[in-house]
Design brief:
By secondary structure, the chain is α/β, with parallel strands linked by helices. It has a single domain, classed as 3-Layer(aba) Sandwich (Rossmann fold), CATH 3.40.50. The protein has a 7-stranded mixed sheet. The longest helix has 16 residues. It starts with a helix and ends in a 12-residue tail after the last strand.
Amino acid sequence: MGENGRATAREIAKRHLDAGDPIGWFEDLYSSAGEDTSIIPWADLTPNPNLVGWLDRYGTTVSGRALKVGSGLGDDAEELACCGYQTTAFDISETAVAWSRKRFPNSAVKYVVADLFDAPDDWKGSFDFVLESYTLQVLPPALRAEAIQCVASFVALDGMLLVIARGRDTKEPEGAMPWPPTKEELKTFQSHGLKEISFEDYMDKEDPPVRRFRVTYQRVSDKSIKFTTT
């Protein structure tokens, strides 16, 4: 997307943050867009290539129920469904969920309007694969610790979590939205019963390239680790 579109998204986010409404800006963003995706920073209308690359290598290792956190316009959720996962995808924005259903009218994905911080109780420990891509980085840093706890809670025993986000070092500024997490922040997933299986720190293929973290976790049973990237 262009810088004008990104500036619009940042303006909407700031307006809600200043009003003490740190997550209400998502619905405002989608409803303001109409059917124009140019102001939605993450709406590429194609599956995230950082997800696709992971699935190409490891996707057959995990099966069963999948959950997409922050489903946006549905492309990543549809990719998971195409890989055979029984996929649920949720977003706090009613407009985003309606837009996804319109884009994919015959989809097998269950699209749900839900709040990460007040998700259905029966989702806890229920998913074999959880995908968190680009949601943590667009939540204000003050909410990140709670968000990490909520995301971790969805992972079933022996289940996997894949986190994809922009990355930064601790000494680097938080910047404007998006607010890239640090390695230290992401490592707190391990304090919620997850084991870090791999941590990739790399420059992607965007123009210009963007630093990304792609991290794989597992909720490990006493028996064994069922997944390895080696």
